[in-house]
Design goal:
The structure is a homodimer of 349-residue chains. Chain A is of the alpha/beta class. The first copy, chain A, has two domains: 151 residues, ornithine cyclodeaminase, domain 1 (2-Layer Sandwich); 178 residues, Rossmann fold (3-Layer(aba) Sandwich), CATH 3.40.50.720. Helix content of chain A is 33%, strand content 24%. The first copy, chain A, is built from eleven helices and 17 strands. In chain A, the strands form three sheets. An eight-stranded parallel sheet of chain A has the order 9-8-7-10-12-16-14-15. In chain A, strands 2-3-4-5-6-1-17 form a seven-stranded mixed sheet. In chain A, strand 8, helix 5 and strand 9 form a beta-alpha-beta unit. The radius of gyration of chain A is 21 Å and the shape is globular. The first copy, chain A, starts with 10 loop residues before the first strand and ends with a helix. At the A-B interface, helix 1, strand 3, strand 4, strand 5 and helix 3 of A face helix 1, strand 3, strand 4, strand 5 and helix 3 of B. Chains A, B: This is Ornithine cyclodeaminase. Chains A, B: Its EC number is 4.3.1.12. Chains A, B: GO terms for molecular function: ornithine cyclodeaminase activity. Chains A, B: InterPro entries: NAD(P)-bd_dom_sf, ODC_Mu_crystall, ODC_N. Chains A, B: It comes from Celeribacter baekdonensis B30.
């Protein structure tokens, strides 16, 4: 049989993992994170323009697979992402992801990209962006509890956006801490490996929790958290998966992405459904205050929202335009006469 | 910089449009449709095993973009599909689609495939499968109103599964009818081009409506439909998009895929929320009757449900295994140490 040559319309630019790594290195990780944070901030500041819905989750005993769609008037984006804490022991990653950006006006995808790396980068960029609004002034020390795949990205983003240079690491698996310490010292950080979470939080301005167990864990208890700190809670992002003791929540000022989703998935699933929270988009627009004094305990109850992925997809689309970091993928059938799909098929035979 | 070579785990088998066409021709369209219908029937018969949700739709003035997920205990599948009736005039297709099948146990995708062609094939296979349960005995004549991209696939499926050999075509655009007539005569059908919907339905055993306008249209009025016919209503599949006059609905026995979705999107959006409908999976399992007598008017209020796409994804996965009809796509990052995503990135630099 002959080999049909798809038309231009049939091709969707695809960014593979290898090309995403090339893109990151072409910009440098720090600039990638800072520029990406600017895209995220831009989209948070126009929050009401988005079509928003809590992500669609399919839970199993071993993990979750989620679809995270959102759209503005011009673009539609979604991410596929899984979360399987037991994967790591079997040589697989806890989280893998890919995503698509499409034209709202005709429904055609304009970008397909790996998002395993991109999710790590956007999660870190979001945390640090929020840190810029909420971390205490002059913050330079961050405790990091949970030293898995997300850890280094968080550290780099907090240095690029908030000036954090000293890290205090703790993980229940010392091998994870050793891995993160090695990587982060290679990036010029002053790194202390700690033997307990209690030790890690001593003197920290910011506390990042990023653990993977799918359970209601208590990574931080109330006595471990002082006044004036900012907690960046990443790992509690699923029903039945939390990291903080409830007492911390009741005395912290809680900041969230999208309350409808966070109340299901975040630390605040432990609280009453009407417990007051502050929406970050309103803080970024200057409509409500962020941190109001040096003694306040602030908490970013991060679960990850579709708009952050949308920003990341927009960012990648803009950055790969005109580069060799994408390849054309024959994803869409494109008959000469759009009604003659069958004719296209028979002519290929 | 060096070129990182992704490991086996990073690759997802991808079926391009060109490869989907090769797969169809390697089996023959008739066998593809029959075998696919068998997969769909198998999944309808185990309906209660699936995690089901109405599709997640993002509506705009010009169309809709939808995500359609479902899962059983082993596999998770979803389809991305758009519907933009105005596309055709601009040289784009009304419907394009792609889909992914994943392992529930670790969340890793096992197949990425084009689904524009596959959706046309699975929609036709589903219609004809339902026709086998509901069409009058000895049916040989089908009226087809709306002769766009889906038309030929419906005809082939109804011949392969139900023995339909004579077609009566009508479309408001005579060029569409001419296109379908040419294609279908080439496939050995006895085809009559009609000058009105009224003329097309004369003497038909089965009436297929498959029009694209996003509005409450009246493609069929009550006086056009006799006793004993089976209506296969494809085009009414969106809020505000219907094809049949309400009077037809009130005298027909109505069969649906997933009531929770059909009541939002199907012809029955015109009826009260508790209007009785019969679920097809129960008919296929023999738990409730399908057509009970020769004079009964039966209606398949088709909107397309995620389980049909899941069946199609399973089918394609099985058929491309061991063939050259897929290519490996570097979609998933795969560090040697799953926790060392950052190390993978820096070593690639």
């Amino acid at each position: 049989m002959n080999t049909p040559q798809p038309s231009e319309l049939a091709y969707v630019p695809f960014v593979s993992v290898a090309n995403m790594m090339r893109l990151v290195h072409s910009l440098g990780v720090d600039r990638f994170l800072s520029d990406l944070a600017a895209y995220i901030e831009e989209d948070f500041k126009r929050w009401p323009e988005f079509d928003k819905t809590p992500r669609v989750a399919s839970h199993s005993l071993e993990g979750v697979i989620e679809l995270m769609p959102t759209a503005d008037a011009e673009l539609y984006g979604f991410k596929y992402v899984n979360g399987h804490p037991k994967n790591m022991k079997e040589g697989f990653q806890t989280v893998t992801a890919f995503g698509v950006l499409s034209s709202v006006s005709n429904g055609y995808p304009v970008l397909l990209t790996e998002m395993t790396l991109l999710t790590a980068l956007r999660t870190a960029a979001t945390s640090a962006l929020v840190g810029r609004y909420l971390a205490p002034k002059g913050a330079s020390v961050m405790a990091m509890i949970g030293n898995g795949a997300q850890c280094e990205f968080q550290a780099l983003a907090f240095r690029a956006l908030c000036g954090i240079t000293r890290l205090r690491l703790y993980d229940i698996d010392p091998a994870a801490t050793a891995k993160a310490k090695r990587n982060l010292e290679g990036q010029g950080f002053d790194v202390m490996a700690c033997s307990s979470a209690q030790e890690a939080v001593e003197g920290a301005d910011v506390i990042t929790t990023c653990t993977a167990d799918k359970q209601c864990a208590t990574i931080l208890t109330d006595n471990m958290v002082g006044r004036g700190q900012h907690i960046n809670a990443i790992g509690g992002d699923c029903p039945g998966k939390t990291e903080l003791h409830k007492d911390i929540l009741t005395r912290a000022q809680i900041f969230v992405e999208y309350p409808e989703q966070t109340r299901i998935e975040g630390e605040i699933q432990q609280l009453a459904a009407d417990h007051p929270v502050t929406e970050l988009w309103q803080v970024m627009r200057g409509e409500v205050p962020g941190r109001t004094d040096a003694n306040q305990l602030t908490l970013f109850d991060s679960v990850g929202f579709a708009i952050e992925d949308f920003s990341a997809l927009r960012f990648v689309r803009d950055k790969v335009a005109g580069t060799a970091f994408s390849e054309p993928l024959d994803l869409l059938a494109d008959p000469d006469d759009p009604r003659d799909l069958f004719g296209m098929l028979t002519r290929a035979g």
